[in-house]
Write a structure and sequence with these properties.
271 residues, Rossmann fold, eight-stranded mixed sheet, 38% helix
C-alpha cells in the first residue's frame, strides 16, 4: 500500500525537526536521515520463521515493503496497532510481543509494525530526523486494518515509538484512531532533552499514559506534566497508570502490562 500525501510532507517535517535540535546535533543528524533498511531486513529474516501467534504481512510505504505481524481474535471490529521501541522489531520479547499476543484475549486484533531503525548505537537526537519515516507506515497499518473490516483502531506505542506516534499525531491529527496508549512516554538519552513536550492536551481521543515504577528518570520526571496535559484535553476515559516494579522495558512484566492496557481498552465505548 502506498500513500501519496504524507511522503510529500516529509521534507518540510524533516526540516522542522532538525530546527528543533541544537546546532551541533542538527548538523550531525542531517548526514543520516534515512532508516537502516538493511538492518530491518536482517531482523525480519530472523523473526518471521519464529512467529507462532499471528502471521507476517508485508505492507508498503514510500514504495518499500516493511514487516507487520497481524494477529486476529475470534471477534472482529476493533484492533490495536503496536509500535515498538528504539532499534527493535515488531515481535520484540519485551512490550511488543506480550501486547500483540496478549491483547487477543481481550478481544482485540493486533497489528505490530516495524518502525524505522538506525544503527545500534544511535541516540534520541539521531532518531529525531527519521520520525517522519514512520508516518506512512502508521498510515499503511491503519489502511490494512480498515480493509480487514476494523472500525475502531487504537494506537499503542512504546518508548521511541511514542516519539514517532506523537510526531505523526501532530502532523496528521487523531481523526483516524479511536485511542492512544503511550508506554514509557518521554524517554530520551542523557543530556538530550525533548525540544518540546508532547502535545497531549491537543489529543481528543482517550489516552492511556502507562509507565513503570522503576522507569527512566525523564519519564518519571515528566509524569506530572503529562497528567496535567491529558486532564486538560478533557476526555473522561483518559488515565495515567503506574505499574509498580516495572522498568522502562517491562522486563518480565509483560503480563501486568497487557492486563493494564487490556482492562483500559475494555472500558472504552465506541459509537
Amino acid at each position: 500500500m502506498r500513500y501519496g500525501l504524507l511522503p510529500g510532507l516529509l521534507p518540510g517535517l524533516l526540516a522542522a525537526l532538525l530546527c528543533l535540535l541544537p546546532p551541533a546535533q542538527a548538523a550531525e543528524s542531517a548526514a543520516e536521515t534515512a532508516p537502516d533498511l538493511e538492518r530491518e531486513q536482517r531482523m525480519a529474516e530472523q523473526i518471521v520463521d519464529a512467529i507462532f501467534d499471528g502471521e507476517p504481512v508485508w505492507l508498503e510505504a514510500d514504495g518499500r515493503e516493511f514487516l507487520g505481524i497481524y494477529t486476529e481474535p475470534d471477534q472482529v471490529g476493533r484492533a490495536v496497532i503496536v509500535l515498538h521501541g528504539r532499534g527493535t522489531h515488531p515481535d520484540w520479547a519485551d512490550v511488543a510481543n506480550p501486547l500483540r499476543v496478549g491483547l487477543i484475549e481481550y478481544g482485540w486484533a493486533t497489528l505490530s509494525l516495524q518502525m524505522p531503525v538506525l544503527a545500534k548505537d544511535s541516540t534520541y537526537y539521531d532518531y529525531m530526523p527519521i520520525f517522519p519515516a514512520a508516518f506512512p507506515r502508521i498510515e499503511a497499518g491503519i489502511a490494512f486494518l480498515r480493509e480487514q473490516g476494523y472500525e475502531n483502531i487504537v494506537l499503542a506505542a512504546h518508548s521511541c515509538g511514542v516519539h514517532m506516534a506523537m510526531a505523526w499525531l501532530k502532523a496528521a491529527g487523531d481523526d483516524s484512531i479511536d485511542g492512544f496508549v503511550g508506554i514509557g512516554m518521554g524517554a530520551t538519552d542523557y543530556q538530550q532533552p525533548m525540544p518540546e513536550p508532547f502535545a497531549l492536551d491537543q489529543i481528543g481521543v482517550p489516552v492511556l499514559d502507562v509507565f513503570g515504577g522503576d522507569e527512566f528518570p525523564a519519564v518519571l520526571r515528566g509524569s506530572p506534566d503529562r497528567l496535567q496535559a491529558i486532564s486538560h484535553a478533557g476526555n473522561p476515559h483518559s488515565r495515567q497508570i503506574v505499574i509498580p516494579g516495572a522498568n522502562h522495558y517491562f522486563t518480565d512484566m509483560g503480563e501486568p502490562l497487557t492486563a493494564t492496557v487490556g482492562s483500559w481498552l475494555d472500558q472504552l465505548r465506541f459509537d
